[in-house]
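On clarity, I found the account of how folds are encoded harder to follow than it need be. For illustration, here is how one protein appears when written out as sequence plus structure tokens.
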Amino acid sequence: MLNIRSPLPPLLLLFILGIFAATSYAAPQRNPNGNGRASQTPQQQAAAIPQGVSEATDGSTILDTTATVNGVNLRFKISAPADQFSTLSNVTGAAQRPNAAGTLGINVLLHGDGGQSFFDFPNQAVQGNLLGVVILAPSEQLLWGQRTGPPSGLDRADGAADSLAVRDLIVDVLPQFVAFDPTNVFFTGVSGGSLTLSGFFMPAHLAEFAGTGVLLMCGGLEPQVDVVNASAFVGKTKIHFQSTQGELELLQPAIPAAIQAFEDLAAAAGLGAQEIGALQTVDNTPLGGHCEFDEQGFVSGIQLIADNFANIMQGGNGAVNGINAATVLTPVVGNEDLQFSLQAAKRDSLSI
């Protein structure tokens, strides 16, 4: 477990990491102290932020820790009532034995490029009977699906390996730390995290977590690997694509292609248009830029959707206070070809 005391104030480090996500630039930054020390990668800056136990927004407990999975270190956070943690977690008030099944499900979030949403933890607290979990990409630039090198946009060469690591963390590691219902596992992606979820994790592993749902914010890829047992999940798993009118240029064709691909999987499994539309939905009503669902900002926009997770993903009416639409749950059938009306953000880098 990492427990390195930061040489910088934590809020300053969080601000630096926020620049990576909000400006879509994930290159190493110069040391803000100006003391001549070598530049650090985002991964090194993240490692300087101490792990441990803190309090969630609902008063429950957050555990921030690291485990080795498939030869890589995965840092993750769990937000849960203290009594749902296992005695191995060292959380005060932990009352569960390791690998005990719980009554609450989990919502697992993969952050966007640069790691902002890992530190913000927008899905913390218990919502819709789901515990919050967020995982940090094992990458020097904090990119899901790309472990080394400069950002390369939609190309995620390590997407399959990262997806397997996420799957194994959920199945083999999380039960050692917290009690949860393994049949009630939802997923949330943000930007680059959505690319890895839709392009790699969903086709390869979603059949193991069928019957719940995947929320894909501001990103999407058609399957980049073979789809395993699609018929096990397409007829019972909710998939929602949430974008904006001012989406990034390289995502404007990628998201509709992902929508069409998963719709085609459902049709090939024998689902009719009404059945598909009930399970697969899409919205890009907000007039903001990339991930600015509240039309105000990256962080606040993501938080808006995270706060409305249950109403979007767990049987609600899809009305989001802050989005000018009666519902965001528009069926994908007939609405695959999203139209973007605002000038997309211009970027100097290919990270998203």
About this structure: The mean pLDDT is 89. Strands lie at 52-55, 61-69, 72-80, 105-110, 130-135, 185-190, 213-217, 238-242, 280-283, 330-331. Residues 278 and 331 are 6 Å apart (CA to CA). The first strand starts at residue 52 and ends at 55.
